[in-house]
Amino acid sequence: MISPKQDKSKTVGAPSATVPEKDEELLAAESEAEARQTSMITDIWHRLKRHRLAMAGLIIIIVLILTAVFASVIAPYSYRDQNLNQALLSPSRDHLFGTDQFGRDLFSRIIYGSRISIAVAFLPVIVSVGIGVLLGAISGYYGGWIDLLIMRMADIMFAFPSLLFAIAIIFAIGRGILSLFIALALVDWAGDARLIRGQVLSIRSKEYIEAARAIGMSDRRIILRHVLPNCLAPIIVTASMSIPGVILTEASLSFIGLGVQPPTPSWGAILNDGQRFIGNAPWMALFPGVAIFLTVLAYNFLGDGLRDAMDPFLKN
Amino acid sequence: MRNYIIRRLLLLILVLWGVTLVTFILMHVVPGDPAKVLLGKLSGNEVLVTKLQHQLGLDKPLVVQYFEFVKGVLRGDLGNSYKFKAPVMSLILERMPATIKLTFGALIIGLLIGLSSGIISAVRRYSVWDTFSMAFAFFGVSTPVFWLAMLLQLLFAVRLGWFHVSGFEGLRDLVLPSVTLGLIYSASIARMTRSSILEVIRMDYVRTARAKGAPERIVIFRHVFRNALIPVVTLIGMQFGGLLTGAALTETVFQIPGVGKLLINSTLDLDYPMIQGGVIFVAIIFVLINLLVDILYAYLDPTIRYD
Predict the structure, then answer these.
(1) Which domain holds residue B145?
(2) Cα(A251)–Cα(A299) distance, rounded to whole angstroms?
(3) Is B211 found in the same domain as B125?
(4) Which helix or strand (DSSP H or E) is residue A79 part of?
(5) Shortest CB distance from B158 goes to which of A155, A279, A289?
């Protein structure tokens, strides 16, 4: 497992004569750790590839990302141009999924809606997991009153059902896409923090951490270099497992009118219209729901597969 | 055990205090002035705004407002709704029966379907049944509850006309909403039951029970099921928040006058005290139910030590 990176790090370290030898060794050890990381990823990928449902999920997600990126090319109509003469048309060759109450092409609106769905799956989840990992790592590593404080904060967060808390946040800071992202990012960190804290607690007592401390490494460096990389597997799994819930929460918020605001199309918001016209335009209630369902299903498949593939790395 | 319960109750006090603080802070970073929102078109009139702010106590320092608010909460007074001009507490209590019936119905349907399909799946592992019920569970956890509500409404109310499309007159109107919520809920119960049983079924005491010649039925129900249920009980508690918010969305689709629909409508009406009181109320219920479940868990599983 000797990587070319290892040589590179040596040549980087060597020219400067003032760099002590120990640092050079440290750099070598770190790049070796990087090599181990790459091997972990290939290892996981090999196992993930055999998971058929996970691969199906991955394909759906890739198609979805491509749809979001090329929405303006794929969508036959604009998502916002109204044409009241064409209102509430049932699905036809001209309008694959029919039209809405303003005569807007539903197919095009669902295509554009994938952008919100993709954005929601990544941005808030990254922020939320980031907060959870940071607080969890601090809590587990330092212990004491900081741990007590952070964990009691998590307890308080657990008292709010997540949709309810998201509603309260959006109510407080006003509607809009940024508020939506902030709300989604803030509702879920407590579970991640608890999980990472548990991981860190078990890693903290390992010999290599003691060794790192013995050679005088700073806490920050120990956490970033040794503790967190060893929590990588549970972090990835928890992130991927939280995506379906976040997408469903976004859809629910948009459905009740607190999420994405018109005319920006979001699947949840289209369903809100669909609800009002369920008697005479059932297609409006059908297609956006199928889109949400398939997306969430895809992330669930992938999350399940990732968890299975990472199983050997999940135990400390 | 007693120490554990005492510790949990102390934690409960802390959490409830945190809930009031977080909610209060959230409601007071609101960019708009509630007095101006209330006055609507008259909000340009400074005299009226100041007068109303004084009436609502909004001109007092935040700390004073917070203490008065907490004092109210302790007495069960959550303030007055702007929209209904009535106490928030009584508005919520009026709508509780509908929500309790819906949640209870969903809980029963969810447990029946979830537990039985989870058990069948695990006992007949890799059979057609297993595939079918796990596919069902995967679909269930991936379906937005309000969408399933709309689909059932479309099929059974709009098309077949078996039920009212919306509204709440009798228990009959709770069938579709309870089935909706119950189906979604059953999915996670089924998955948890299956994996929990599969874990227990590998245990030595199960092999012993089989070895001594106990009939399979006895092995499953007496030895496996009782032990496997324990993690499922925790899940039921954890999922309760989901059940409450799911109920809110279901109530919205079927126009059931429950607590959830009241809260969602209040956000659109900018009814600050209603939201503040509602959030606190739901959080308290949620915390209490989780406490109950945890204590039940401690009774169910004597091997767990809480010291």
Answers:
(1) 100-257
(2) 15
(3) yes
(4) none
(5) A279
